[in-house]
Every structure is written in structure tokens, then in C-alpha cells.
Design brief:
Number of strands: 2
Strand order of the largest sheet: 1-2
InterPro entries: Na_symporter_ssu
Domain Sodium symporter small subunit: 7-84
Structural class: mainly alpha
Keywords: Membrane, Transmembrane, Transmembrane helix
Transmembrane segments: 21-40, 52-71
Radius of gyration: 18 Å
Protein name: Putative solute:sodium symporter small subunit
Number of domains: 1
């Protein structure tokens, strides 16, 4: 694989990862906390409606998990394409 093909494949893999993470982020922040809140509020977690919980607490936990997921997967992509740091 040429250097240019390797760079294009690396960028493509990076964009796929970012696209997936942004989709999860949008579903959690807008979907669970705003759009689906009325449906989720039929359930409770810790005494609070689930839609409210996602808007106030759950989304933060998901976002932190996304940061760790991104770091792990980006490290894997870097190693696969030989651009990782020692």
C-alpha cells in the first residue's frame, strides 16, 4: 500500500469512528434528553423520571464513556496504520 493510500485509509477509518461517536452523542443528548423524554419519563431511575435523568446525569456518563471509547479505538487505528506514538 502506498503512503497516499495508507493516509486515505487512515483518514477514512478516523472519520467512520468520529461519525459513529457523533451519532451516539446526538441520540443521547437530543434523543433521550429531549425528543424521547416524554416516553422515557414513564420510567424512573433513583426516584427521578428517566428522561430527566438522561438530560441531567445520564448524558454526562455516556459522554465520559465516549471519551474513553474514542481514545481506545483511536489508539487501535493509529497502531493499525503505523502512526502510533511510543
Amino acid at each position: 500500500m502506498s503512503n497516499e493510500e495508507n493516509a486515505k485509509a487512515y483518514w477514512s477509518a478516523t472519520l467512520r469512528l468520529l461519525t459513529g461517536i457523533l451519532i451516539v452523542w446526538a441520540l443521547v443528548s437530543y434523543g433521550a434528553a429531549i425528543i424521547f423524554a416524554p416516553v422515557l419519563n414513564n420510567f424512573s431511575l433513583g426516584g427521578y423520571p428517566l428522561g430527566f435523568w438522561f438530560g441531567q446525569q445520564g448524558s454526562i456518563y455516556i459522554f465520559i464513556a465516549l471519551i474513553f471509547f474514542y481514545a481506545k479505538k483511536m489508539g487501535d487505528i493509529d497502531r493499525k496504520f503505523g502512526v502510533h506514538e511510543e
